[in-house]
Each structure stands twice: as C-alpha cells, then as structure tokens.
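[audit] Reproducing an earlier prediction to check determinism. Same input, same settings, fresh worker. If the tokens differ from the archived copy the diff job will pick it up downstream; this log only records the rerun itself.
[audit] input (489 residues):
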Amino acid sequence: MKRVLAFDFGASSGRAILGSYENGKVTLQEVHRFSNDPVELNGTLYWDVLRLFHEIKQGILKAKAAGGFDSVGIDTWGVDFGLLDEKGRLLMNPVHYRDARTRGMIGHSEKYISNDRMYAISGIQFMEFNTVFQLLSVKENDPALLERADKMLFMPDLLSYFLTGEKVSEYSIATTSGMVDIHTHGWSDEILEALGLPKKLFCGIVKPGAVIGSLTEKLAGELGVPRVPVIAVCGHDTQSAVTAVPTEEKDFAFISSGTWSLFGTEPDAPAAGERSRRCNFTNEGGFNYTTAFLKNICGLWLIQESRRQWRREGREFSFAALEEAAMKAAPFRCFIDPDAPDFVQPGDIPGRIRAFCERTGQSAPQTEGETVRCIYESLALKYRDVLEQMRYCTGKDYNSIYIVGGGSQDNTLNRMTANACGVPVSAGPTEATVLGNVAVQLISLGAMQGVEEARAAIARSFTPARFDPGDKAPWDAAYEACKQKIYGI
C-alpha cells in the first residue's frame, strides 16, 4: 500500500493530508491544517509564502509521526506566481490576485494583441487577475523588477521548488496564465512576443504525474525524512477537483465549490470558438492533457467576506447562523451579479450589495439574513445562466450537476442550485481537491492505473448527498428578472 502526502492550499487555508488506496477504496487522514492569511503592505496585497513553506515543513513532520509517506504533491489556487533571480532567490513575496495592480490591463493589452487572437490561442476566460495581465502590469509599471527576474514559478511550482530545488511549470497551473497554446500544450511565442515578456522567465512545462525531483538532502536531513519524490499533481486546485469528480458519465457538469465556484464540463477537445469567446468560457488543461471547459464564478467568498465585514463592525456570526437567518428572509427580493467588478476587492461586501441593488432599481437588503439570502439566490441563478451558456457552447445537454469541494457541504446552496437549474445535484466529496491530488500521486507511483480507476474508487469511498429539483416556476420568474435587470440580456 502506498501512502502519499497531499498539500492543498486554498485562498484562506491549507491542509496536509495523507492518502492511501487499499481494497478498492481511498482513505484520507488530515495531519495538519493552517490559515493562509494575505498581508497588505504599503498598498499591495501579498501572499506570505515563507510562512506557507513553514507550514509545509510542519505538515511533513506530522506526516512522519503518523507513519510516513512515499511522495509529496502540492496544489494551490491559480494564476499567482513568484519571481526568482538568476541565483534562484525569491525577489519578493508573490502578489495576491485580488491586488488592484491589474485594473485596466485587459483593455491595455489590446495595444499589443487583440483579445480575440489571445483567446483563440489560449482559450482562457478574460479576468483581470490572469497571470498574463499581472506580468503585463509588472512590465509596464515596474520594469526593473522584470529585468532582475530570471524565472517565474506558479505557486505550486514555487513551493515544490523550495522542496526540491527544481524549477518546472506544471501543465494545469500553467494554462491558468493565459499564455499557453491549448493546441500545442506549450508556451505561446506569439503572445509572449506581442506583449514583450522575456521568454527566459518561462520554465519547461511538465505533465501532471511527472516527478519534479526529490526532497533536497538538506531539507530531508533537517526534517528527518527520506528523500521521497515530489510529484507534479494537477497544480491548479480546480483541476485536482475535476480529477476526483465521482462519475462514470462521459458528458457531465460539475461545480468545484468554495471561495470560487468553477462551473464546467470535460469535453473531448478545447472549445475556443466564437460562441465560447462571446460567453467568456475558459479551457484549462487537466490530467493527461484533458480540457476542463468552465467559467470562474465568484463563489462563497461573498459570504466569507461579508462575515469578515460584520466582524469588523463588532458583530460575530457563525456560518450556520447566517444560513439560518437567510432561510428566514423573504425569497426573491433582490439579486446581484456575483461577477460584477463591485465584488472583486476585499472590503464592505454587504455595503456594495446594497449599492448594487439600489443602482439596479431593486429593494436593497438591510439585514444579515437578507444579504446572505441575496447571495445564495444570486449564485444559484448565476449557475443556471452558466449552465445554459455551456449548453449553447457545446451543443450538449447536462442532466445532473456534480458539486464537489468544501462548498458541497452548503445544503442551502445545493438545494437552490437544483431548483434554479432544474436538474438533480450530487454533492460531495468535500475533499475533492485533495482526492485529485492523492489520485495523481498514486497513478504516478503505479498504485492506480488511471483517472477512470481513481474516479470509481472515490465513488466507492464517499457517498454523495442528492438534491432533486422542486418547484421550478418561481426560479424561472427570478431568472427572467435577472436576465433583464442584472445580466443585461
């Protein structure tokens, strides 16, 4: 039996989990959990990456105490990166994707290459925090930093570099950048040359499942562990979660639900045509060069950040209390577009929701329950909108939705999603991202034969909750109201 150590970093916390596969089932054992707290300094929002590496070492020590492990794999959120100088030293803490430095960069990039051409090459949804726009911002506003940089490493690759000393770019995380050619699976020379980004920055791309290297001799000695391999799992947490969707269906719809909601499917080939571009869908690379055709939706971060704002105001609420208050509030009073620019930056989300509703001629929520109800219903209706766009882009129907990740525990949102979309929802497993990380390590070590076996094993190991749609009529009416008032359709 192989035991592997998976590190999963989300936008607010991280975990170290031991995974194993025996008798056809996957088991998980959490050994370490820690917060991931961005730091604002002099007007810039950073990730505290050295603290995160400290937590990795604590996770390794606790995994050793729990019986040891045969390999390590790391997945994180997408797009963000660190810059190294020619001696391999980190030049600065990685900047958080919610930092304001990329404002206006999507439009600015068209001075060099059209958005249509960039999309045809990369197939990536246009969002201001995409790596390509972050790098363009550095080039335009801090060119000296880019001149000092020798290599760029995405967050999972950077943390793996700290473990091994090896510099690579894993395929799934690289595709989030907007600079990978989805047809060749390599960096796009056309995009890099058009934007004037130095090619030397970009490391060789490796497939998920490749061995990056082994723990350095110094680190292994410090921690008292063997020099086990560090494996390039699907470094983007979304693609790790997709790897673990417990289905045998060929055409399935999924939502990887958490801080972000990633709604998509897994088609036979990338779809970067006119319909997909108009709907602003993304084509992210996955295990074995598969494609996840999806859309990023601002997810439960809206509730998380609202709760932080109320705490700043001296009012403390548990998530359970907020969910209960939402269910007591009147339904279908007001809606927002979760992806509106109003809600990108941290801060007073409840106040911005009130302002959005007033601006769009709606009754603004006044209480915590009304605010959370507005968020829940707006997310469920946004899911329906994206489902209809996905059907339009692919020409396929989707008769159920698999919700995986931490957000799959939110039964209120699961139920509303089933009602709004008019299809059954299968919710779970909660630890889909970790399970995908574990599965790729096990496949790399030869303990599993492929994704099909992994998904079947995960389905045997974790029982999902099912939510069937109820009365669809009020949701149909709400959706029509949203299209007119909110989405401008």
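[audit] rerun output stored. Observation attached for the diff report: The chain has two domains: 3-231, 245-428+449-489.
[audit] end
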